[in-house]
Amino acid sequence: MEQKQFTFPGMEYRRPDFEKISGQAEELTDRVKTARSYEAVKACLMEMEEITKHMETAITIVSIRHTIDTRDEFYEKEDAFLRAKMPEVTPGLLALKESFMNSAFRAELEEEYGSQMFVSMELEKKTFCEENIPLMQKEALLTSEYEKIMAAAEIPFEGETRNLYGIQKFFEHEDREVRSAAYREYAAFYHSHEERLEEIWDELIKIRTQMAKNLGYENFIPVGYMQQGRTDYGQEEVAYFRRQVREYAVPLCAKLYEMQRNRLGVDTLMAYDEKRVFPDGNAVPAGDEDFMISQAQKMYHDISPETGEFVDFMIGHELLDLKNKPGKASTGYMTILPDYLAPFVFACLNHTTFDAQVLTHEMGHAFAGYMAMREQPFSAYYFSATDISEIHSMSMEQFAYKYAEMFFGEQADKYRFAHLQDALMLVPFGTAVDEFQHICYGNPELTPRERTLEWKKLEEIYMPWRKYDADDFFDRGGFWYHKLHIFLYPFYYINYILTTVGAMEFAAKNAKDHEKAWEDYLKLCKCGGSMSYLETLKYAGLSVPFEDGSVRRAVEYIEGVLLPGEKR
Asked: What is the pLDDT of residues 439-456, one digit of tens each?
């Protein structure tokens, strides 16, 4: 496939002409309704494809540049403008999609492109009504404000001003007092913004609840599930998965933390000790950001021809922004630029083990997007469902274990142990995040303080080892404020936990038969969003995380690696 010559910094941004797009959508809708042949309908589909790809590319350029520097006034205002305009153009685009759904030639479209695109169209229809446009605009303003508060963090520590990623580096410091002080400053930042963060969260719950009621639902939970593209499982299956986590993952986490307490030689393992895995220090990258990127390039060339081509594409087109800088949004993500068939990776490296995770996790997302954009005929399939996409990233982290020496030298085994332990430790926390959102949206009348108390209760269930300094902001339940997914992406976070099961399955397969594991992984990446969740799992040879024993098997695999030889 011939590639366009471009770099991300050199991409030209042109504001979408939303009035023109609405007119084009209306004209295409009329043509689909009056079409007398499949070829005429297909031509309209391809025209819609070009219109939406151009629009989404422009919006994504703005979003990326805004997160790279949230202080840039042009992109801040442009991002706000686009967030406000998108809901206004949505009715016309939905009407166009509905015309395809009702077309006499729908069967032919499904035969050529599969049925999943119509499933996605139906979800869009179910989760949108014009009455919600002003609410969507308010929601966008609130989430943007949360992001800006996080990005603007300036925390004086150890003689420098740190942002949220910068201060977290000290959670691994050899001096326990430094760790404690850094953690206190981190908590103090959220405490200082507690009042406004409470207001933002309260307003978001009210707005999303009203959106759901306008759509005919009692609360936001079913709408949140549909927004995540969930069509073949629901709340009951997720609740059962959470019960499995409590039964199998929580006890092993407690055991590993007790072992860590003994290694560190402390009476009580405090929250600020949790990231210090080894008494003589965690694995530290053997070089700076440029070193890590160069090593990642070598690694991906060794993994497969496909990953080698991919990493050269990403570096050559400057599709990585990884250095931690003032004003940069405190997040990490992968997104795509459809016009260029290009993924983009954003992160804030901080010279900890986190850096290697970014170069495998987010690049796993990007590789999947890169492959899907070259395999799938339709942009609706470039992204897989959110509950599948985290398998791409977390499995790539496992495939990269073989190459840990390239990033960490003699400390590679430390990295592998700490990383796998951390993958397990995420499971109870992420499950608590999911249950917290169910509680908040299922009981929208709760006060902000009552919600924070609910989080405290969940910590006691899912993280009974967690200990904070007395009277600390986090000690009374404030820890949840730091998780941006709660504010920005309702019901997304459980995807990380569901996909831990798939990632551990790939890890186990990889240990037995690398060629077969990589073959299945490539299939997973190439299929993009062309199938439902359960269909995709089956296609890639993966089990369903809601089934009996799925969490137990994943936990047993981790236990077998971290605690070899122990009786289970």
From this structure: 999 999 999 999 999 999
